[in-house]
Amino acid sequence: MPATLSAPDPSASAPNRSAGTPTPTLLEVFRRLDSGPRGLTEAQAEERLERFGENVVPDDRDPSWPRLFARSLRDPFTAVLLCLGLVSAAVLAWGTASVILLLVVVSCLLRASGEHRADRSTAGLRRLVATTVTVQRRTHEDEAPATREIPVEELVPGDVVRLGPGDLVPADVRLLRSTGLTVHQGALTGESAPVEKSVSDDRDAGTGVLQNPRLCFLGSSVASGSATAVVTGTGGHTRVAAAHRRTGKPPATTFERSVQGVSWILIRFALLTPPLVLMANAALRGRGLETLPFAVAVAVGLTPEMLPVLVTACLARGAALLARTHGVIVRRLPALHDLGAMDVLCVDKTGTLTQDRPVVHRALDAEGHDDPEVLRLAAAAAWWSLQLAELPAPDALDEALLAAADEDALTSYDGITALPFDPARRLATVAVRTPGRLGTHTLITKGAVDAVLRRCVLPDDERSRVRDLADAQAADGLRVLALATAERPAGSRGAERDLRFRGLVTLRDDLAPTAADALAALAAGGVTVKVLTGDHPGTAVRACRELGLVPEPAGVVTADRLDTLTGPELTELARRTTVFAHCTPEHKTRITRALQTGGHTVGFLGDGVNDLPALRTADVGIAPRDAAGVTRANADVVLAGKDLTAIGHAVAAGRHAGGNIATYLRITLSSNLGNVIAMLSAGLLLPFLPMLPAQVLVQNLCFDAAQLAFAYDRPHPSALRRPRVLDPRELLRFLVGFGALNAVADLATFGVLAFALRGPGDDEALFHSGWFTENLLTQALVMILLSVGPAGRGGRPGPVTWSAAGLTATALLLPATPPGAALGLTALPAVYYALLAAVLALYAVALTAARKRYERRGGAGTVAQPEN
Questions:
Q1: In the predicted model, is pLDDT for residue 647 greater than 70?
Q2: Within 10 Å of residue 437's Cβ, how many Cβ atoms?
Q3: pLDDT, mean over the chain
Q4: Are 402 and 379 in contact (CB under 8 A)?
């Protein structure tokens, strides 16, 4: 083998050539690949496999566990905690720093483990659809080639492969020989109908690379016919890999934008709090840097330390449940939140709303009336083509004809000869013997309308009327087959001419069995479905109409109109349009981005390479198990099958997890803000620190442990009915209102403490104990009253209720125990508890009234603000 052989050049399969550049000749291809019609030797194949690597698109390789752990450190919430941990260590608050860093590590471990588990599940799905390829190789240079099956990963450039019906095209290939070959390449182009491929077809200029009849690409599959081809590109040198490299870095999703907004709120408060505490104590109390540990403890008290842990636990728990019960694998945990926030789902009709196979719709005579005899003749032609031409399997259209016909249609004729379907002629013909008609054979010809009509004897007006009838059926989204017959003497070699036109058979796409119910459920849940397809508008509209997605005339747009629109115009058009037809990958991406610009959280369900740019642009990308490998590798969510019902379950799980996260944030941050305001006020009013740093840390740990219950809470059903988005501005308004109410309760406690502690004793220790107890009790009360789960709605006690009960027990018992004494706490007088009960009762009344007022004004309770 020449030493000059280099990595495969994609130009050999012309992915980078202009539409008008001729395809290289076979001789040029063989010379560049140092191969030939007999294929490679085993030694050559082994050397090339070592040099070029396995035939795997690079992104199909899952990231390692350490890489996932490092990636989880980039989470903004985790970054906030890391900064606070470092500040705590700088002021020698080692206890606080240790706890914070421990929480960071736990959060990263949970997230990395969840995503690693999802990647392993995705790899398992890949193995379920793994396949082999028939390759032609030689043991030695001078031996004759032999065919054998090898894993597709072992294919190398220069290999000669054989393809048959149902085979996946294992790499980018150049055809050497073909017989009646048609290929499904909807994964690359979005078109649902198979395209013809042929070595003898000389179409080149102006057709585009994917339409080049001599080239087939990784990601497509053989619909009918057979072929022998030479491999021109594998793995990272295929058109699929090139399409992935062009997509670039995906934009920030809804969850990431929300997290960044909330993180900046926390950062501002955390950075502002310590200087305020220091300056206020220095100005009013003459205290200096000795208050720095307390100031840092206050800043830590404001920050929800458990946030990364709880967010990861909520998402990981929901993702694990989805994988176990519905076969939905969440590869990127934050995508589960985006599913819950999703209010627009974009789908490709091909293989999503339909099953990628046609079914017979009607059989019509020349006048347009139903005629069962037309279907009987067409089915007989399909049956005898399969039997006499020794085809391995019927193509999709013949299979639909056979499924629709009764058994009598297949047994009432006796086949004689068959001429199978030829993509160049676009016809198939059989000769059959009809019982009771000795000496005469019947020719049955079926195929494309124009090809059949050219061979029929028809007056011009009749020919025009039939064409109009066929065009009307096609415009209604149906595929159309024409049928003609002729009587010939037995033994004659009758040609396909002077035929009698018999009628038309129309076929429609077979709908996915669960699609209608799934679409209705998504609509009821506030998710609008939009269809972005490469198909004809009539085909897409028919499928949508039969599934209950009835687009108005203004709701159907062909993609060529998009090229003339500005950004704002496209945003408005995308909002009101249901079906976009004739979409290219660029159109799908523009539509997805326009919907996001309009304030929508967008999901995109696609299975082809042509869907990859839009899938990466969407807030959440969804792919079925048998999607193109590079598409599945870049999806956030992978479905075990093409079932929209599974998406409904995933949306519910996302809203469940998102509701619990938002509830935690609202309750924790409002309570923490109230405590910080009260603590700053007390620091200025009292001659001593209102709480020791160790007490602040223990109080935070108690509250943090209790808040883990939110990861296992059952949200109220109202939280699952509509899409929910975590709005930082709405969250800030909630914090200010309910945080101020909490601060009022804390300040009222000061009065109670002043009254209850007038007797002898250590006022400082009693104050610390009293406020420690009150803080935990008010936080337990907030958890119950602002929770949206059954605990907060009068249902059976749930995890939050039991957790609040444990927090209450800690508040009442800890000050009187030896661990409490070690923290500087002491037992409280009985009168304090009586007065505190009165304060808590008033606080509960005020809290309930504030919550009802907030909900009446259109707030979303403790879940999140519904998206407009």
A1: yes
A2: 11
A3: 77
A4: yes
Choice among 347-351, 416-420, 438-442 with the minimum mean pLDDT: 347-351
Nearest Cα neighbor of 743 from 852, 808, 670, 842 is: 670
Mean pLDDT on 738-764 = 72
Q: Could you say which of 75, 159, 348, 535 is catalytic?
A: 348
* Pair (704, 826) in one structural domain: yes
Encode pLDDT of 400-412 as tens digits: 888 888 777 677 7
pLDDT of residue 862: 38
CATH code of the domain containing 392: 3.40.1110.10
d(Cα 461, Cα 467) in Å, to the nearest integer?
A: 10
Which of the residue ranges 586-600, 619-633, 719-733 has the most confident prediction, judged by mean pLDDT? 586-600
Partnered with residue 429 across adjacent β-strands are: 419, 445
Q: Which two tokens stand for residue 13?
A: 């399969």
Q: Kindly give, in sequence order, each residue whose CB lies less than 8 Å from that of residue 57, ignoring residues fewer than 6 positions away.
A: 218, 235, 236, 238, 240, 241, 244, 629, 630, 633
Say if CB 724 and CB 340 are below 8 A apart: yes
Closest CA to 694 of 81, 99, 278: 99
- What are the beta bridge partners of residue 444? 430, 485
Specify whether the CB–CB gap between 478 and 536 falls below 8 A: no
Domain region containing 675:
251-323+654-866
Consecutive H or E run containing 680: helix 644-685
The beta strands (E) that lie in 474-610 are given as 479-489, 500-511, 528-532, 556-558, 579-581, 602-605
Task: Determine the Cα–Cα distance for residues 750 and 775; give it in Å rounded to an integer.
Answer: 12
Taking the CA atoms of residue 10, residue 11, residue 16 and residue 20 in that order, the dihedral angle to the nearest 10 degrees is -150
pLDDT of amino acid 161: 92
348 carries an active-site annotation: yes
Residue 271's pLDDT is: 67
pLDDT at residue number 759: 46
Q: Which residue has the higher pLDDT, 734 or 797?
A: 734
- Output the pTM of the full model: 0.70
In this predicted structure, which of 221-230, 270-279, 412-421 has the lowest mean pLDDT?
A: 270-279
Q: Give 693's contacts (C-beta < 8 A, 6+ positions apart).
A: 93, 96, 293, 294, 296, 297
- Give how many domains the chain has, as a whole number: 3
Query: Using CA atoms, how far apart are residues 603 and 655, in angstroms rounded to an integer?
Result: 14
Choose the weakest-confidence range: 536-545, 720-729, 774-783, 837-846: 720-729
347 sits in the region (left: phi over 0; alpha: psi -120 to 50; else beta) called beta
CB within 8 Å of 540: residues ≥ 6 apart:
349, 477, 531, 533, 556, 579, 581
Name which of 372, 366, 371, 365 is nearest 405 in CA terms: 372
Co-location of 263 and 382 in the same domain:
no
The C-alpha atoms of residue 231 and residue 395 are separated, in whole angstroms, by 25
Distance in angstroms (rounded) separating the CA atoms of residues 116 and 496: 61
Element containing residue 770 per DSSP (H, E) = helix 763-785
In a domain? residue 300: yes
Confidence of residue 345 (pLDDT cuts 50, 70, 90): very high
767 Cβ contact list (under 8 Å, min separation 6):
686, 688, 690, 753, 757
Tokens read off for 221: 């599959």
Query: Are 789 and 689 in a shared domain?
Result: yes
Q: Which of 21-30, 381-390, 722-731, 782-791 has the lowest mean pLDDT?
A: 782-791
Eight-state DSSP code of residue 332: S
Q: How far apart are CA 210 and CA 243, in angstroms?
A: 13
Of 487, 506, 525, the residue at which a domain comes to its end is 506
